[in-house]
Amino acid sequence: MEPLMAVVIGILFATAIYMMLRRSIVKLVIGLMLLSNAANLLIFATAGMTRGAPPLVPEGLTAPEGAVADPLPQALVLTAIVIAFGVLSFAVVLVRRAWEIVRADDLDKMKDTDT
C-alpha cells in the first residue's frame, strides 16, 4: 500500500507544481489545493499506515493491546485540513475580487495596480 501511496503523492506534487507555474490565477489556486492534499497524504504515509487498529484503550487497561495506529499524524492532518480550507477560502475570495477589478485571469495582466 505504501508504494502506491508514494506514487500518488508524487503525482499530486508534480501536478500541483505544474498548475502553480501556469499564468492563470485559477490554476494557481487549484495547484495550492493539490499541494496541501499531497502534503497531508505525505504525513499519513510517513507515519505508517496501520489498518484496522484504532488508537483506543480498552476499559480496565492502561495501555492499548497489540498494534495501534498513531493518532498524532491524524491530528496533524485534521489540523492541516482546516488550515488549508481557510487558506483556500481566502484565495478564492481574492481571485474573485481580482477578477472584478481587472477582468482578466492572466497573472501577467495583473501587474498594474492602477486598474
Key structural traits:
115 residues, 3 helices, mainly alpha
Number of strands: 0
The succession of helices and strands, N to C, reads HHH
Approximate shape: elongated
Helix content: 55-70%
Radius of gyration: 20 Å
Indicate the mean pLDDT. Answer: 88
**How many helical stretches?**
3
Sheet with most strands: none
**Percent of residues in beta strands?**
under 5%
Give the low-pLDDT segments. none
Sheet/helix structural class: mainly alpha
The separation of the N and C termini measures 52 Å
Secondary-structure topology with pairs:
Elements: H1 2-20, H2 25-47, H3 71-102
Helix pairs in contact: 1-2, 2-3
Write a structural description.
By secondary structure, the chain is mainly alpha-helical. The chain contains three helices and no strands. Helix 1 packs antiparallel against helix 2 and helix 2 (25-47) packs antiparallel against helix 3 (71-102). The longest helix has 32 residues, at 71-102. The protein is elongated and about 70 Å long.
